[in-house]
Amino acid sequence: METSSRLIEPEGSEEIPEKSEQRGARAEKSWQILRAAAKVFARSGYFNSKVSDVAREAGVADGTVYLYFKSKDDLLMSIFTTAMDDFIRRARAELASLSDPLQQLRRFAHLHFESLERDRDMAIVFQIELRQSTKFMEQFSSSQLAEYFQIIREIIETGQQTGLFRTQLSSRLVAKFLFGALDEMATNWVISHGNYPLTTMVDPVMDIFFNGVGTRHVTV
Amino acid sequence: METSSRLIEPEGSEEIPEKSEQRGARAEKSWQILRAAAKVFARSGYFNSKVSDVAREAGVADGTVYLYFKSKDDLLMSIFTTAMDDFIRRARAELASLSDPLQQLRRFAHLHFESLERDRDMAIVFQIELRQSTKFMEQFSSSQLAEYFQIIREIIETGQQTGLFRTQLSSRLVAKFLFGALDEMATNWVISHGNYPLTTMVDPVMDIFFNGVGTRHVTV
User: Fold this and answer.
1) DSSP state of B82
2) Closest CA to A64 of A73, A77, A56
3) Contact residues for B91 (Cβ-Cβ < 8 A; gap 6+)
4) Among A3, A47, A2, which Cα is nearest to A150's?
5) Which of A36, A41, A81 is nearest to A62 (CA)?
6) What are A's interface residues with B at a Cβ cutoff of 8 A?
7) B214 strand-pairing partners
8) How far is B22 from chain A (nearest CA, A)?
9) Could you give the ipTM of this predicted complex?
10) Do residues A114 and A175 make contact, with C-beta atoms less than 8 angstroms apart?
11) Are the beta carbons of A130 and A140 closer than 8 angstroms?
């Protein structure tokens, strides 16, 4: 239970309403520009896109984009950080209502897939456009992606303490393993123009994963 | 046993020596240019690189590069196809000497990691530079990558027939799952400037994987 609460409310954080009055109009406009950027990057590819294309898609002047974002790089990074912040907040909130590590991991995987499934532009940006440079990849891995992994690790470690998961496995490795499997399903769904809901892959993936890390056979 | 031989020699194919007289000087020069291209792309990123940078790195005139490759895109695609052809040939040859699906999959994973580990430039190109566009990703998935998946599927299906792996799992899904896990370890190794041999990750990954797909507990 203690681990569960740690999962939800890291020290010093408070629950922030998704669209509070404080964030207000500025956050709204900023998000509108990022949505437009995701659409443009998904359609034309990051390298072929210009900030002016993003402005046109967002229905604002070029100068307005620069009031919010320093550069095209900043737009791409901000899509990542904003969407990940949102995902991490949602995940911590939803996991708080569950205590079983199996249920928590399944919910986490479902949230991961659901967030890509509901926004194809964002999915293309996340699975492809964000992966194109060593520089970006290095920045991501020391950012919110570290928190994504941390959530999985905490659940795995709780499961190890309660005898559900094998204790000889490194939670760090297990987290990467799970991310790799989920990420490949997501990329495949994007590239194959998947005409199936990505979330249908949660159960088959978690079946293999749970049996892989579990101390006994798990029927999904 | 029949499945094993099918794995090694697909119909109509013959064993081709890695550097036969016939391939000779042209293949040698072509490979020299691709190695240089991998070095340049790994160092500067694909989008920031020019064909003239590749020519300089290879110690040839710009025109010489164009005798072998149509464009910068062609260089990137050719790095992929040449390295994958080599990998697939090596994998089929090595798997031929093994009959146990567990040993075959472990060897396959080892070959995958080893081929990245021995050439860091190539690893950066494979894990990052090749992933940057939907166009490339779509081309790859219908090319030698399909054969990579096919090798895993054949081994999985043999293992299912002999009662080693759970029959209710789709071999297609299992192949993607394994690739995802291996690929994430490889990307992580590249991004973290891994000062550990990537091949040390084979055993821990295959431990989780074998238990995930196996009908009984496997000790690695």
Assistant:
1) H
2) A56
3) B108, B111, B151
4) A3
5) A36
6) 45-47, 124, 128-129, 131-135, 137-138, 141, 169-170, 173-174, 176-177, 179-185, 187-188, 190-192, 201, 204-205, 207-214
7) B165
8) 37
9) 0.85
10) no
11) yes
CA B145-B147-B148 angle, to 5 degrees, is: 65
Helices vs. strands in chain B: H and E counts, helices first: 11, 0
| CA dihedral sign, ordered B112, B113, B115, B120 | positive
Q: In this complex, which of A173, A180, A208 lies closest to B174 when CB atoms are compared?
A: A208
Chain B residues whose CB is inside 8 A of the A209 CB are 208, 212
Q: Which residues pair with B165 in a beta bridge?
A: B214
Query: What's the token pair of residue B101?
Result: 């699906």
CA atoms of A46 and A24, how far apart (whole Å): 29
DSSP state of A44: H
Query: Which tokens in the block code for residue B21?
Result: 């007289």
Distance of alpha carbon B176 from alpha carbon B182, whole angstroms:
10
Cα separation, B88 vs A161, whole angstroms: 42
Q: Indicate the pTM of the whole model.
A: 0.86
CA–CA separation, B218 and B211 (whole Å)? 6
The minimum CA-CA distance between B44 and chain A, rounded to whole Å, is 9
Q: Which domains are delineated in chain A?
A: 2-13+72-213 (1.10.357.10)
Contacts of B152 in chain A (CB under 8 A): none
8 Å CB contact between A205 and A133: no
Torsion of CA B65, B67, B70, B71, to 10 degrees: 10
**What's CA B34's distance to the chain center, in Å?**
16
Task: Note down pLDDT in tens along chain A; length 220 residues.
Answer: 334 434 443 333 434 445 455 568 888 899 999 999 999 999 999 989 999 999 999 999 999 999 999 999 999 999 999 999 999 999 999 999 999 999 999 999 999 999 999 999 999 999 988 887 667 777 776 678 899 999 999 999 999 999 999 999 999 999 999 999 999 999 999 988 868 999 999 999 999 999 999 987 777 6
3-state helix, strand, coil in chain B (%, to 5): 70, 0, 25
Helices and strands (H, E) in chain A, number of each type: 11, 0
